[in-house]
Backbone:
């Protein structure tokens, strides 16, 4: 019985945490553009020319 | 898009309806970019826009194919469209109201779904231990904890159902949400009573799970409709929002459509639409009337010609004077017909609503009889109530409430992937009942652009000369000659100096000869038949030497689409406003059963009514402004993406990829969906027939209820998913037997 007193708050607390995390994600617009976010992974953080210069590669 | 220079920061009046202003003075405008699809597209558009002065941020939403621009005072709003065009993408401003951030209903549904899912999951944790045989003290503790989780969750997640049920009951009607709300409320109340009195059975898991399943169905349904709405909004708006008025001092100013009064003078450039019914006062042009009356050959406009709103000026600059205000113009009159024709739609009652109408009284009556029955048999009111509530839970409208929308959602997804946007679920039900189809000709069965079909005499050298002249002109018939010559390899691309006489033809000096391409009068020829619009002459030194004949060519997939309809047992009729000969040609070429020509919009509407009387439910496929009343009068309608705004607004389905083979595909999907809906409803009824006696006799424990409810929902969903199988539109049209 005493085990339950610890385990139940843990289980519900973790569930509630997940629920809050989902609400936060929803509010901060993470579900607004699922397709776009998938594609954005492929974008460079900085323009291609800068990267090339940094690595010392000439124009290829 | 035409833009005038505007002072920086201030938005030109034509963009005004699209702009939202924030409190800090920044503005927000949304542009549709229908062709963006990849990471490189995002980079091109955002990269171009963020470099524009005054732009705070630009973010492409790829799911919606839109870009949202935030800008401050120093930005030139009217220049945004040009910048996006420069990055290589078609664009036009759209209302931001379908933006996810502005969709409060979806946010509410998703939150309610999350809350009910959380509660259902955790309560199930306790319920499983209770079912496994927890001792009395633990059971009581778990019931209390379940109640603690369930009550707030049900109050929060149940709001969409309670609200809808209440608004139906208040006006003395009933819908699916009424039995749902009664079931959930009673179940929760009874479980609470059981918890307080230390009873054996609590159904908190059943009521939260019920809400979770129903919310999942409803959220999917909402997302489907939102996807359809944003896809339709992303089609370029064709009808003008206003026009450029010519002021007396020689400048131009943008006037909103509603502010146009008769007598105002306007400039109508090539490619623009006539804003209101007007008369030409200066200039010559070629007017495309295909959207207005189905006439496939352009009309030559000169001073004195009256133009209906919605026609397009193809060539030349015109000065026009407004003859009627927008509210009395051709477009507004068609809109009035559309609104008057609403009743076929409103009279249709959805299958789910009809089922709910039967379902609610039967279930509630059974529950009442169960309660009274047990009471009469001396079981005591507590046991009687327990069994009555078990009846309500086990007949839970879960499977029934999911049976229809889940099929519609799957069908909409299937259609969307194949270039067909479905507006709403009831359209699919109406489509399933279609017995006869009516097609418009110009722009629907045909491309709306003429094609060279015959030449007299058949001399390639003359065609080459005609094409050289024609290539320099924008007239549709000239372009058709050039296209025909190019296809045969006769097109000489060396530019020559041509003189174009709008409404007559083109002339040029090639070598020693003086060539003319144009109307009979222009070439000194004489027309034998009255069909003067569909051919042109070629003259050399004032002597006619060749004649070219044109026809509005059917789309390449028109025959396949008509044949597809025939295989489904749906005869195709052609209803057109064009001349009889042209309509007969196309009707024969595509294999239509029957045709009617020279119809006014009112006559098209009447023809639809005749077809309905003779055959049954009518499907109308059309694109023009003149088709809009017929599109609305038919039981169900389809418009290609190229259709006029009013036609698209009136239609239930939009072919976004402009492929006509989508039409038989929609019909076949609708029929299969109809069958699945009936199977699902049949299953829900059969399921109830089996478990109801158990519930009445009092054998339903919370465990049985939970298993029965979730398994029936899963079966209904799996059955609906079968719609994803089967042939797509191209295979569907091509193969067969």
Residues:
């Amino acid at each position: 019985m005493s085990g339950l007193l610890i385990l139940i708050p843990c289980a519900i607390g973790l569930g509630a945490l997940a629920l809050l995390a989902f609400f936060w994600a929803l509010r901060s617009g993470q579900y607004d553009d699922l397709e776009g976010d998938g594609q954005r992974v492929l974008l460079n953080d900085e323009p291609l020319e800068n990267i090339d210069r940094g690595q010392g590669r000439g124009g290829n | 898009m035409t833009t005038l220079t505007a002072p920086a920061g201030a938005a030109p009046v034509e963009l005004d309806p699209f702009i939202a202003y924030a409190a800090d003075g920044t503005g927000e405008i949304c542009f549709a970019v229908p062709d963006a699809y990849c990471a490189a597209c995002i980079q091109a558009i955002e990269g171009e826009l963020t470099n524009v002065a005054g732009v705070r941020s630009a973010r492409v939403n790829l799911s919606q194919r839109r870009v949202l621009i935030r800008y401050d005072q120093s930005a030139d709003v009217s220049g945004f469209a040009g910048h996006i065009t420069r990055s290589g993408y078609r664009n036009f401003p759209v209302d931001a109201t379908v933006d996810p951030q502005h969709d409060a209903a979806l946010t509410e549904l998703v939150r309610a779904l999350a809350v009910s899912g959380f509660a259902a999951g955790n309560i199930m944790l306790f319920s499983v231990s209770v079912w496994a045989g927890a001792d009395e003290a633990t059971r009581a503790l778990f019931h209390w904890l379940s109640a603690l989780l369930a009550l707030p969750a049900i109050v929060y997640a149940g709001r969409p159902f309670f609200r809808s049920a209440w608004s139906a009951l208040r006006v003395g009607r009933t819908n699916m949400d009424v039995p749902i709300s009664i079931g959930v409320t009673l179940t929760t109340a009874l479980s609470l009573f059981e918890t307080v009195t230390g009873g054996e059975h609590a159904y908190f898991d059943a009521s939260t799970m019920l809400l979770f399943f129903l919310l999942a169905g409803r959220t999917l349904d909402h997302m489907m409709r939102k996807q359809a709405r944003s896809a339709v909004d992303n089609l370029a708006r064709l009808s003008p929002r206003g026009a450029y008025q010519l002021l007396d001092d020689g400048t131009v100013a943008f006037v909103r459509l509603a502010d146009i009064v008769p007598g105002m003078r306007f400039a109508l450039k090539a490619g623009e639409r006539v804003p209101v019914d007007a008369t030409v006062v200066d200039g010559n042009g070629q007017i495309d009337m295909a959207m207005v009356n189905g006439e496939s050959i352009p009309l030559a406009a000169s001073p004195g010609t009256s133009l209906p709103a919605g026609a397009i000026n193809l060539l030349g600059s015109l000065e026009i004077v407004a003859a009627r205000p927008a509210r009395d113009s051709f477009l507004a009159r068609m809109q009035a017909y559309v609104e008057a024709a609403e009743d076929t739609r409103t009279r249709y009652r959805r299958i789910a609503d009809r089922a709910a109408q039967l379902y609610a009284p039967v279930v509630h009556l059974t529950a009442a009889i169960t309660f009274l029955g047990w009471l009469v048999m001396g079981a005591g009111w507590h046991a009687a109530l327990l069994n009555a509530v078990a009846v309500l839970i086990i007949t839970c409208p879960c499977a029934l409430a999911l049976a229809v929308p889940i099929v519609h959602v799957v069908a909409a997804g299937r259609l969307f992937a194949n270039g067909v946007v479905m507006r709403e679920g009831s359209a699919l039900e109406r489509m399933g009942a279609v017995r006869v189809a009516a097609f418009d000709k110009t722009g629907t069965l045909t491309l709306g652009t003429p094609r060279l079909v015959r030449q007299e005499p058949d001399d390639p050298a003359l065609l080459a000369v005609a094409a050289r002249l024609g290539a320099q002109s924008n007239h549709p018939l000239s372009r058709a000659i050039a296209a025909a010559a190019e296809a045969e390899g006769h097109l000489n691309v060396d530019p020559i100096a041509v003189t174009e006489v709008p409404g007559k033809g083109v002339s040029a000096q090639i070598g020693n000869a003086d060539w003319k391409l144009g109307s009979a009068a222009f070439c000194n020829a004489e027309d034998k038949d009255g069909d003067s619009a569909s051919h042109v002459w070629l003259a050399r030194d004032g002597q006619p030497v060749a004649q070219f004949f044109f026809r509005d060519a059917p789309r390449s997939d028109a025959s396949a689409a008509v044949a597809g309809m025939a295989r489904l047992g749906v005869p195709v009729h052609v209803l057109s406003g064009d001349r009889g000969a042209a309509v007969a040609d196309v009707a024969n070429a595509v294999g239509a059963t029957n045709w009617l020509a020279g119809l006014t919009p009112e006559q098209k509407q009447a023809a639809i009514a005749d077809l309905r009387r003779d055959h049954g439910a009518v499907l109308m496929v059309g694109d023009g402004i003149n088709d809009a009343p017929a599109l609305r009068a038919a039981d169900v309608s389809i418009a290609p993406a190229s259709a006029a705004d009013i036609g698209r607004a009136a239609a239930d389905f939009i072919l976004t990829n402009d492929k006509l083979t989508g039409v038989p595909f929609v019909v076949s999907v609708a029929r299969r969906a109809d069958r699945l809906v009936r199977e699902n409803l049949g299953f829900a009824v059969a399921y109830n027939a089996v478990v109801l006696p158990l519930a009445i006799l009092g054998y339903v424990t919370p465990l049985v209820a939970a298993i029965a409810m979730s398994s029936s929902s899963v079966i209904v969903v799996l059955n609906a998913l079968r719609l994803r199988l089967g042939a797509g539109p191209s295979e569907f049209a091509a193969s067969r037997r």
Observations:
- Chain B touches chain A through 25 residues (CB under 8 Å).
- Residues 1-10 of chain B have pLDDT under 50 and may be disordered.
- Residues 13-102 of chain B form a domain with the Alpha-Beta Plaits fold (CATH 3.30.70.100).
- DSSP finds 25 helices and 27 strands in chain B.
